[in-house]
Amino acid sequence: MSQPRNPYFTSLRCRECGRDYPKEAVHVCEYDFGPLEAAYDYDAIRTVLTRHEIEARPPTMWRYRELLPLDGEPTVGLQTGFTPLVPAPRLARRLGLTGDLFIKNDAVNFPTLSFKDRVVAVALSRAKELGLETVACASTGNLANSVAANAAASGLNCLVFIPQDLERGKVVGSLIFGARVIGIRGSYDIVNRLCSEIAGKYGWGFVNVNLRPYYAEGSKTVGYEICEQLGWRAPQHTVICMASGSLLTKVHKAYSEFAKLGLITPGTGSIHGAQAAGCGPIVDAMKLGRETVKPVAKPNTIVKSLAIGTPADGYYAIRVMKETGGTAEAATDPEAIAGIELLAETTGIFAETAGGVTVACAKKLIASGAIPRDESVVLCITGNGLKTIEAVTDAVGEPEIIGGSLREFDEQILARGTGAAATV
Ligand SMILES: *Cc1c(COP(=O)(O)O)cnc(C)c1O
Ligand SMILES: [Zn+2]
Fold first, then answer.
1. Within a domain: 40
2. pLDDT digits (tens, 9 = 90+) for 330-385
3. In this structure, which ligand is nearest to the CA of 27?
4. How far is 255 from 269, CA to CA, in rounded Å?
5. Residue 79 domain-assigned (yes or no)
6. Rounded to whole angstroms, how far apart are CA atoms 372 and 156?
7. Best of 117, 140, 142, 310 to mutate for ligand 1, by most ligand atoms within 8 A of CB?
8. Of the residues 131, 158, 173, 314, which has the fewest C-beta atoms closer than 10 A?
C-alpha cells in the first residue's frame, strides 16, 4: 500500500444505537434504520492536530483531513474550500446590527461555485478508495453540477438525477461536463426515491444515498474554516439555510469537534436555520415545537435548491437548533429576492436564491431579538447567483441604453445621478 493511511477514521456508527459498521458504501443501520455517521479517534487526533499544524497547510478544506472520512490521501477536489470569510459592516448597518457580521462565501467555491463542492470532494475521494467506477446523485441542482464536474475531472462515469424544472444555469452547469443528466417529472423527493432504488439495484456510488455518511462529513469543513478564520473561535450566531438539514447539523458537529480537541474555547454559539416559506418543513416543525417533521408534498417556491419536502436530517437539525438556543425562520419568495439584492448592494456578493433566504431570515431574527443586535453573526452563503438569474431578472430591471455621444450621457444618464451605493 503506497498511500499514507489515515488511522483516525475508525468506523461508521449508527446515530441511534451506536453500533459500528465497516467503512463501506452503507448508510443506514440494519437494526433501527438510524443514519450512519463517520466516527473518529479524537484522542489520537488531539495529539497531532494543532492550530499551528493546520495553519501551516495549504488553504483548502483538506487542511482538516484527520477529521474527514478517508483511509488515504484525497484524490478529488484537491483545491476545494477555504473560501473567504468576508466582513460585512455595510450589511450589518442595514440589519441594525452593532456586533460583527461576516459572510462565509461559498458562492466562490471551487470548482462549481457552491458548498456542494466540499461534500462531493469527500464522497468521490471515498468512492475511488472503495473502487467504484460509476457515481451518481439525486440533486436540486448544485450537487449535480459538482458531481458532474468532479467526475469529469477524475474520469468517473456519472449520472445525475434532477427534477426536470430546475433553473437553466443549473441544468447547463451539469450538461457541460458530459454527464448523463436525467430530468424527472416530479419533485426532488420523487427523484430521491428513484435514486435509492437504483442504488440498491446497481450498486453505483450515489453520493447522497449510499455514500451519504462520507458526503455529509464534507460539510463540516465550512464550520472548521469559520472558526479558524475568526481567530479560533465559533461565532455567537450562525445562520444556515436548510434543504435536508445536513449542512446545519455538520457545522454544529465541526464546532463541537474543535471544542473537544481544544482548538477553540468551548461553546458552539446559537445555530439558526432558514428555509423558504413555500417548502419549510423543518421551520414549521420548530415553530410548532415538534421534533418530527411533517413532509411538504408539493414544494412551491422559486428557491429550488432548498425544495426538499422530506428532509432526511430534519430531526437532527431541530435538535441542534434547540440545544444551541437557535431558532428557525422562513422567507417568502419576494423576501428571498430582496435578500439577494440587499446582500449584493452591501457586500458585492451575488448569492443564489438560497442565500437570499439566509439573508432575509437573518433580518427577521435580528428584528425579533432572536439574534441580539450587539452579538457576532456569520451568515453562510452557499451558492452563486449566476446560476439562478431567472429569480432576480425582473427585480433588477434593464440597463439604461444610449447612443455613444457625450451629450446623451450628460443629459440622459448623469442628470439622474451616479448610482445608489453611496446612499446606503
Ligand atoms: C444543498 C444546498 C444547501 C443545504 O443542503 P442540506 O441538504 O441542508 O445540507 C444549501 N444551499 C444550497 C445552495 C444548496 O445547494
Ligand atoms: Zn442503529
1. no
2. 999 999 999 999 999 999 999 999 999 999 999 999 999 999 999 999 999 999 99
3. 2
4. 9
5. no
6. 48
7. 142
8. 131
